[in-house]
Design a protein that fits this description.
Length: about 180
């Protein structure tokens, strides 16, 4: 017996797409309670190498490419200061500059009245990078068995009777809506 489309399940992906990112952080793609892996485990599955990092199941090759992408240079490209610590790391990831440069930019923008505009730009950059992460996560989930493991270790199948093409179309539409929303801000 095929289950009907569960709106609540589609709603969860919608929440993720609309920026409730904690929900995707708290779920782990595609493994069952019985073979639950712990932080730092490395194993082979479906021809790929996986690990658990920060509580999330991740494809190692994907993580490496992400790491390369966000790898901080030794010095900030704007001020040449040596980059260090999690705050510089965060601002590098979002804004490609160090925290000091970011703070200075904020101060300046408050003075010359462009603060709101700069904040809006930053928000867009953060959202764009989240959309990229979410898209990767979604593709991976779609390639897998389309179940999610909740924080409590319960396996939920929330494809809701939709096939892959339908899920993809639904997700694509949500992404487009969100991108449209960002471009109109
Ligand atoms: Zn700097």
């Amino acid at each position: 017996m095929k289950k009907g489309i569960s709106e609540s399940k589609v709603q969860r992906m919608r929440n993720i797409v609309k920026g409730d990112y904690t929900k995707s952080v708290n779920t782990q793609v595609g493994y069952k309670k019985s073979d639950k892996k712990v932080e730092g485990d490395v194993w082979e599955e479906a021809g790929k190498t996986w690990t658990i990092k920060n509580g999330i199941k991740q494809n190692i090759s994907k993580m490496q490419s992400v790491r390369d992408l966000i790898k901080m240079p030794l010095t900030c490209p704007e001020c040449d200061k040596v980059m260090r610590g999690q705050f510089d790391r965060y601002h590098w990831k979002v804004d490609k500059k160090c925290l000091d440069c970011f703070t200075l930019e904020q101060k300046k923008s408050r003075a010359d009245g462009t603060y709101e505009k700069i904040q809006k730009e930053l928000f867009k950059k953060i959202k764009t990078s989240q959309i990229k992460d979410i898209t990767d996560e979604f593709e991976e989930w779609l390639d897998g068995n389309q179940t999610f493991v909740t924080e409590l270790g319960e396996v939920e199948d929330w494809s809701g009777g939709l096939n892959k093409a339908e899920l993809k179309a639904k997700f694509k539409k949500e992404l487009l809506d969100w991108k449209k929303h960002l471009s109109e801000m």
